[in-house]
Amino acid sequence: MATFLYKLGRLAFRRRHFVALIWVALLTLAGVGAASAPPAGNSSFSIPGTEAQKAFDLLEQRFPGASADGATARVVFKAPAGETMTDAGNKATVEKTVDELADGSEVASVADPYTGNAVSEDGTIAYASVKYDVSGMELEESTKDALEDAAQQARDAGLTVEIGGDALQAVPETGATEVIGIAVAAVVLVITFGSLVSAGLPLLTALIGVGIGVSSITALASALELGSTTSILAMMIGLAVGIDYALFIVSRYRAELAEGREREEAAGRAVGTAGSAVVFAGLTVVIALVGLAVVNIPMLTKMGIAAAGTVAIAVLIALTMIPALLGYAGRRVKPAGAKGKRLGRSRKGEPKPDRPAGQPKANLGTRWASFVVRRPLAVLLLGVIGLGAAAVPAASLELGLPDDGSQPTSTTQRRAYDLLSEGFGPGFNGPLMVVVDAKGSDAPKDAFTDVEQRIKGLDGVVAVAPPAPNKGGDTATITVVPDSKPSSVQTEDLVHAIRDAGGDVEAKTGAETLVTGATAMNIDVSQKLNDALVPYLVLVVGLAFLLLIVVFRSILVPLKAALGFLLSVMAALGAVVAVFQWGWLSGLMGVEETGPVMSMMPIFMVGVVFGLAMDYEVFLVTRMREAYVHGEKPNQAVVTGFKHGARVVTAAAVIMMAVFAGFIGSSESMVKMIGFGLAIAVFFDAFVVRMAIVPAVLALLGKKAWWLPKWLDRALPNVDVERGPAHRRRARHRPRRGPGAGAHLTRHRRL
User: Fold this and answer.
1) pLDDT tens digits for 154-180?
2) Maximum pairwise Cα distance, the chain
């Protein structure tokens, strides 16, 4: 591996014009494809294998032309103080609005509140339901404008009018904080490298990689039914890993220059060593993201594959375009240690990367690692107890999917949601759709009535609409309004109670009863994700564990990496629960409404955080492994790994946190939650697990950390992550640099 990448790095350095031309051409091609692609249509949300999806599919078959997936809008009216919606003037305003809404070209139907029993008991609130022929993402702007204009005319007449439903669904925005995140990354890079040129290379390549990835997603969005969230998440992850991967290679290049190597040779060695870590780190991220397909939710699978593709592009750019740009930069990229003059301060007291210990003052990474190996047990206990305390809120985790009730109070959707709750009860915003399939029943009408009566007898039911059969008379829908809000445990219990009652009806009449609707769909999604979490963990952690055994030639190091990941992800979930469910620091994070954590959050965090956690594990521990196989004692190898890698890993973690935190400003609650969760997870994993727990465990294990059964060592492929054949070949032709050089090479050959 290292030999191949070494040659690739030198080739890219020499043929930099050709390499740059290829990537610019790919960026141009992706940009043209995105610009000429049709707008993304409906990103259908389906959950195969669930009862809610089965009922939804049945509705499309038995009720043709009903536009089951069409957009909906609820225009909610509230009378001025002291008046009711049945007053003549208010009634005339509402009827005029209904007539205007019905004239739309994409409108399938409009229900008049006065003929559809859609006026509250106190008469102060009423609503008109609008059904469209197409989905919310496919509605023309003129249709949305007509909806808002009709509502505004009713407001001008003195009524309070708000619009709920998905007809006014907007593409989520990330806000200015995303730009701030990139700016923070730029500042960290400048501080790390002390040079604008060196700092600009990771940013430039990351932006090119993300540009290619996101443009490709946009170009394929319509054909593959990719939602708007897919490109945002791909951008989030692509930016973070793209900057980090380039950062590690540029840092290693500068370290090689500091050892006196020629620039082409330094580029080859940087790609051969740090590039090997980039490849395996990228593989773990790709495995984690593609593994989301195990859940069998198409939307989640598409998100994972799209993000994995962006990560793969980031790896390829780091391995090829970075050495090419280093060739263009020439002497403007300084060796490591040369930045002190650029910043106006001297670093004469700091040793060069390979300077023997015991001479000048060590850097901060060396001092911290030395402290940890002296007090490993205390550091280990402190880290584990701290993460355990942060994980405590995760025990109260409640899962659900966001609805209009989780929208900011500044939106008309949220205000419509609150008005409906005020006038008709909290359960009105999440009605349940019960579908009775009586095709196999001898008496369909009796089956419909039986289901209706059984539902009326259940606790937690406010209203049950009469069965509405289809033209064939073999299927009917029954609308059920709970007395609790959609995301509550009581509503979930009611769904299960209806399904249990439906089982009794089927045994008696042969009619199958199914529960669907947005609320039931959310419940089924949560259950499906919970059921898939353990298989997903086994698959992803198992594959990555095998991969890390190959990389580190060890059993205990990969095991320690996996256990450390579990600590960091549980602590991150605890922080998410504390902020988004309990409301701690919710104002600071812009969380206007607390509630259940998004159902996809745990499994998505497990996938993404595991991949990112392995990044730091690979980058940091490969330097320790490299030092160990070159003859250093285990504890000294830990210190050496930190001397070379701690500063860069710290910068990489801060950059990744800044990029993820930039998405907390998104208007989409899902993106906001994922941005916060990933940022806090990187903090826990990089600064507590990898910087404290990992060196402490390695210090306690000593040589046992690198133990591998001989039979397994012979069976595993030699991927040559450390300074392999390229190092040995160059070493034979390099003059001795002082006492111990021959012994160093002899040790390496013997190992």
Assistant:
1) 999 999 999 988 777 665 555 555 677
2) 102
Position 52, amino acid:
A
What's the CA gap between 244 and 238, in Å, rounded? Answer: 10
The whole-angstrom separation of Cα 603 and Cα 584 is: 23
pLDDT > 50? residue 359? no
Of the two residues 381 and 625, the one the predictor is more confident about is 381
Residue 378 one-letter amino acid: A
Strand (E) or helix (H) holding 107: strand 107-111
Q: Which residues pair with 109 in a beta bridge?
A: 131
Tokens of 42: 């409906």
80 confidence band (pLDDT: 50, 70, 90):
very high
Point out which residues pair with 296 in neighbouring strands: none
Kind plus residue range of the DSSP H or E element containing 518: helix 518-552
Backbone angles phi, psi at 634, to 5 degrees: -55, -50
List CB contacts of 251: < 8 A, sequence separation 6 or more: 192, 193, 274, 336, 648
Tokens 């206007």 correspond to 592
Burial class (CB in 10 A: 0-12, 13-18, 19+), 209: buried
DSSP string for residues in 580-593: IIS-TTHHHHT--S
**Do 85 and 77 touch, CB atoms closer than 8 A?**
yes
446-495 pLDDT per residue, tens: 888 888 889 988 888 888 888 888 888 888 888 888 988 887 888 888 99
Taking residue 256's Cβ as centre, other Cβ atoms within 10 Å add up to: 24
Among 426, 373, 464, 482, which residue's Cα sits nearest to residue 700?
Answer: 373
Kindly write down the DSSP assignment for every residue of 68-100, as one continuous string.
TTS-EEEEEEEPPTT--TTSHHHHHHHHHHHHH
Query: Does 670 have pLDDT greater than 80?
Result: no
Torsion of CA 94, 96, 98, 100, to 10 degrees: -140
**Contacts with 664 (C-beta within 8 Å, 6 or more apart), sequence order:** 177, 589, 590, 672, 675, 676, 679
- Integer Cα distance of 431 and 495 in angstroms: 11
